[in-house]
Structures are given as structure tokens and as C-alpha cells.
Automatic annotation (TrEMBL):
Any one GO MF annotation of this record: pyridoxal phosphate binding
Source organism (scientific name): Ostreococcus lucimarinus (strain CCE9901)
Keyword Transferase among UniProt keywords: yes
CDD domains given in the database record: AAT_like
Residue ranges of the TM segments: none
Protein name in the entry: Aminotransferase class I/classII large domain-containing protein
Protein's UniProt keywords contain Secreted: no
InterPro entries referenced in this protein's UniProt entry, alphabetically: Aminotransferase_I/II_large (IPR004839), AspAT/PAT-like (IPR050596), PyrdxlP-dep_Trfase (IPR015424), PyrdxlP-dep_Trfase_major (IPR015421), PyrdxlP-dep_Trfase_small (IPR015422)
Family from the record: Belongs to the class-I pyridoxal-phosphate-dependent aminotransferase family.
Recorded superkingdom: Eukaryota
GO biological process, one term: amino acid metabolic process
Domain Aminotransferase class I/classII large: 18-375
Pfam families given in the database record: Aminotran_1_2
Length: 387
């Protein structure tokens, strides 16, 4: 990020072409106006004081109803703890559940917070590689990694950085392992409303989301993490939740009291509006992302030396490259300097991300076209043998 900031300053000073930022996982759409209006009304109505540590009752009730509607599983407000974004929903349950010596299994490549939350809890990280298409764990490696010391298995579907969606049979296999070894499953579902192709996993039937918590015997051992950032374009609002058994929710509430305290009341009122109001903005956004995804994947696969599977969800592409004598970090640095396109090296998401890059396709289609053209030109210059 420091290199990106320095390059942008130099570009501004020299009048050079602007940096196209494909590295950030932030929706390219505005928060729905109805949600913003609800927040303004709440502020004007005096909703500016402390809120309940576990979340305003009406938001927790709205989340519980939303989970019934989308996952088909009966949750109550007492199962829900609201936090400032989804990250506390990852960190605080890990702190509540894990002791030093416990092991946490998570995907590699995967969201960097998974490793960080293990470190915070003193737990032993057990990253497990994904299969080549990025959709799911290498299931043989997963089965070899889960044992009596495993306290938690983390799944993320759709996933960051790959955009992969776990097949139902793999989710069921995770559930069987969790039952066999009596461990928690943390299901990071922040991208759950962004599935493009597979109707079995949600897809066009936007309000129906397949979640591991719906499998027999799994609600009581699932920590479901979700939020507003990706679905409702509310990244800066910092609003998310965790749904889990009530005894664990009480522990998370205690940690919330002595850490973040609470979430702003007016933000939570906006969250109620997001969940209970019309959902047409979600479908419109997803439809546009599908167009952008299809363009980016086709453009990447048209570049010699690059191969990109089609991601079924989220808003990331995770192409691999065949160029010799260059690491993912070096290639990302080169494209930033030469093409002025910001991408992330796959190794930012774990050792298994080597020889991959992550890019987001949240930007305008015109910017994505320009970015793909720049990348193709720069790579042809650096690796002429691949042209």
C-alpha cells in the first residue's frame, strides 16, 4: 500500500496516467439511498447515544428474521451479536472458543484475518490448501489436518481471494468432520448474496442461501458470520453480526463490552432498513458484477501465460501465471509500476497463493477494459517469449 501511495503521488506530480485500483475489495456501488435516509432520520431523531453491547434489539431481531428467510434456519435475537463490521465476528468468537494449543483449520489462500485471529487467541494455525479451481479445500488435505486438537474449522463460501463457491458435498464433508472431532465451524458468509451461476447454491434465487448451519446437527456448532459491507455497499459503516448458540453469544457479548463497547445506534437503524426493505439493489448489483466478471475472466484468459478459472461468487478473480523467475509479489510490483494497475499478490492470502494474483472487478467496465489492456501490454513487454 505504501508503494501504491507513492506511485499515485508521483503520477499526480508528473501528470502520468492514473493508477487503476483493482486491489481493493470494496463494492463499486453506493449505499442504497433508503439506508442512508434511515440513518439521517435516526441522527435527527436523537439516536446518538450508547447502544446495547450485543446490538440494538430491533436489529438483532431483524438479523434473526433475515437468517430464517435466507438460510431457512430458526434463529432468535438471543443468538445474534452485532459488531462494527464482520471482523469482530471472526475475532471475538475465536477468542471465546480457543485456547493455546487448540488448532484452527482455514483455507489457504484465504482471508488474512484468519491467521491473525489465531495469533490473537494463541491458537495454532493449520492452513489447508484449496484445490486448483479455488472453489473448495483439497478434501484429502482437509481430512488429514483435522484431529483431536482441532477447535475450529473455518469455511468461506463464496471465498476471498478466489471467488470460489464450495460444492454442497464438500460442505457436508466439513460438517461430518466437525461432528466427528466435536469442533466448531466458523462459516464466513460475507459474500453470500453474491453468487452468479449455480442455482443450487443460491444464485438467481437470491433470498435462499445454502449454509452449513442448515445441515442436521450443525446449527449448535456453527458460528455464522455475515454483515452489510458487501451486500449493501456499506463498507465504511462498519456493521456486521455473528449468529451462534446462545451460550457462546453471551461470551462474545462480554468480549464486546470490554473491547468495542457497542455499535453506533443510528448505524444499526440503517442496518434494519437494509435487511427489511426492498432488495432490488442487491440483484441489480449482482447482475452488473456478473457482466464485469465475464469480461475480466475472458480478458485474462486471452493473455498468454495467464489462466483464470471462472469464479462463481464474490467479486474477485484469482488468475495463475506461468511466467518464469518471478514471484507473485514481484509481478504485482511490476504491473503497478509499469502498467499502473494495482493488484494483490496471491501470497498476501497465504503461501499457497504463490504464482497467483488477486484482482477485484468492482470498478466501472471502462476502467476494467483499460486495466486489462494495460496488463496485456506490460506482460508482453516483460515476457516476450509468451506472446
Amino acid at each position: 500500500m505504501r508503494a501504491l501511495a507513492a506511485l499515485e503521488r508521483r503520477s499526480d506530480a508528473k501528470g502520468a496516467k492514473r493508477v487503476l485500483r483493482l486491489e481493493i475489495g470494496q463494492p463499486g456501488f453506493a449505499t442504497p439511498a433508503r439506508v442512508c435516509d434511515a440513518a439521517v432520520r435516526a441522527i435527527e431523531g436523537g439516536e446518538t447515544k450508547y447502544a446495547a453491547p450485543s446490538g440494538a434489539p430491533r436489529l438483532r431481531e431483524a438479523v434473526a428474521e433475515y437468517l430464517v428467510r435466507t438460510r431457512g434456519v430458526a434463529y432468535e435475537a438471543e443468538n445474534v451479536v452485532v459488531g462494527p463490521g464482520a471482523k469482530p465476528g471472526l475475532f471475538l468468537p475465536t477468542l471465546a472458543c480457543c485456547d493455546p494449543g487448540d488448532e484452527v483449520v482455514y483455507p489457504d489462500p484465504g482471508f488474512p484475518t484468519y491467521a491473525a485471529m489465531c495469533a490473537a487467541a494463541g491458537a495454532t494455525p493449520r492452513p489447508v490448501p484449496l484445490r486448483s479451481d479455488g472453489a473448495s479445500f483439497d478434501m484429502a488435505a482437509l481430512e488429514a489436518s483435522v484431529n483431536e486438537k482441532t477447535k475450529m474449522i473455518v469455511i468461506n463460501s463464496p471465498g476471498n481471494p478466489t471467488g470460489g463457491v464450495m460444492p454442497r458435498e464438500d460442505v457436508a464433508a466439513v460438517a461430518r468432520l466437525a461432528k466427528k472431532f466435536n469442533c466448531w465451524v466458523m462459516s464466513d458468509e460475507i459474500y453470500s448474496r453474491l453468487i452468479y451461476d449455480d442455482e443450487e447454491e443460491g444464485g438467481e434465487n437470491d433470498e435462499k442461501i445454502f449454509s452449513i448451519c442448515a445441515l442436521d446437527g450443525m446449527k449448535e456448532r456453527t458460528i455464522l458470520v455475515d454483515g452489510f459491507s458487501k451486500t449493501y455497499c456499506m463498507t465504511g459503516w462498519r456493521l456486521g453480526w455473528v449468529a451462534c448458540p446462545k451460550h457462546l453469544a453471551e461470551k462474545i457479548k462480554l468480549l464486546t463490552v470490554h473491547s468495542v463497547g457497542c455499535v453506533a445506534a443510528f448505524t444499526q437503524i440503517a442496518g434494519v432498513e437494509a435487511l427489511t426493505g426492498p432488495q432490488d439493489s442487491v440483484k441489480a448489483m449482482r447482475d452488473e458484477y456478473r457482466v464485469r466478471r465475464d469480461f475480466v475472466v475472458d480478458a485474462l484468459n486471452d493473455i498468454p501465460g495467464i489462466s483464470c478459472p471462472v469464479p462463481k461468487g464474490a467479486f474477485y478473480a484469482f488468475p495463475s501465471f506461468d511466467f518464469p523467475d518471478v514471484t507473485a509479489q514481484e509481478l504485482a510490483d511490476y504491473l503497478l509500476e509499469d502498467a499502473r494497475v494495482a493488484l494483490l499478490p496471491g501470497t498476501d492470502f497465504g503461501a499457497a497463493g504463490e504464482r497467483h494474483l488477486r484482482l477485484s472487478y468492482v470498478g466501472e467496465l471502462s476502467d476494467l477494459r483499460e486495466a486489462m489492456a494495460r496488463i496485456k501490454t506490460s506482460l508482453a513487454k516483460r515476457f516476450p517469449d509468451f506472446v
